[in-house]
Amino acid sequence: MRSLSRTPATDVAAHERVWRRALALGAAVGVFGLSYGVLAVAAGLPPWLTVVSSLLVLAGGAQFAFVAVIAAGGAPLAGVVSGLLLNLRFIPFGVALAANLPPAPLRRRLLDGYLLVDESVALGLAGPPAGTAYRFRLAGWTVVVTWVLGTALGAYGGQLLDPERFGLDAAFPAGFLALLAPWLRTRAGRVAAAAGVGLALLLTPITPPGVPIVAAGLGAFAGLWLVPNRPADTAADDVEVAP
Question: Which helix (H) or strand (E) holds 66?
């Protein structure tokens, strides 16, 4: 239900703010995709397979893990396992998001599952529950378009670019940290961040690669479950829109 305090002017302004956030995020993801395209082709993947992987997998961290293993001379299976370990973090992400999405038929749920990435979850949950689906799907489709286009540009024309020289490898982490900043102003966000970082630091010296990342995701989920609140400071800026 739309808040009685809202007016058409405030609704338009809120829509614009959500779109600006999604487009800014998409720009960072596009640059990250460009970097992935360059690195994947340099590691030996054909350009067409590099682009198709971005369209079908749609998981930057897992794709970079796979390319890193291949570039280091590892077996493809080891790269796949590394990517799967990284993607286990989407289990608690999906649970947290599903609680805020309205009932939907199976085909819609499957499509939402495709859009389930770090950026779409972060933007989807950063605001009033009534607008979660709108923000999540807007961010998700923005990421699909910019990630695939960025990958294609890097795969087919990126031989002239050095990702580290131009800072392309840092664009995505910087953009994602900026998106998560509002959560760190809440108690839930701080507890989740502390739990995730603490587990990752504790396990890094004693467990195989990938395990600390999985544990960090579960720690963050536990933190959000123990302190279930939303970033109140973003509520006035977001949109309550029926899906």
Answer: helix 60-71
Q: Model-level pTM greater than 0.70?
A: no
- Phi/psi of residue 207, each to 5°? -125, 160
Query: How many CB atoms lie under 10 A from the CB of residue 139?
Result: 28
**pLDDT tens-digit profile of 48-92?**
989 998 998 888 777 877 777 676 676 677 667 767 766 777 777
Q: Tokens standing for 104? A: 């939907």
Please tell me whether residue 46 adopts helix, strand or coil conformation.
Answer: coil
The CB-side HSE value for 128 (13 A sphere, CA atoms) comes to: 15
Could you tell me which of 135, 150, 125 has the C-alpha nearest to residue 242?
135
Backbone angles phi, psi at 59, to 5 degrees: -150, 95
**148-167 confidence digits (pLDDT tens):** 999 999 888 876 666 566 66
> What would the two tokens of residue 10 be?
């405030």
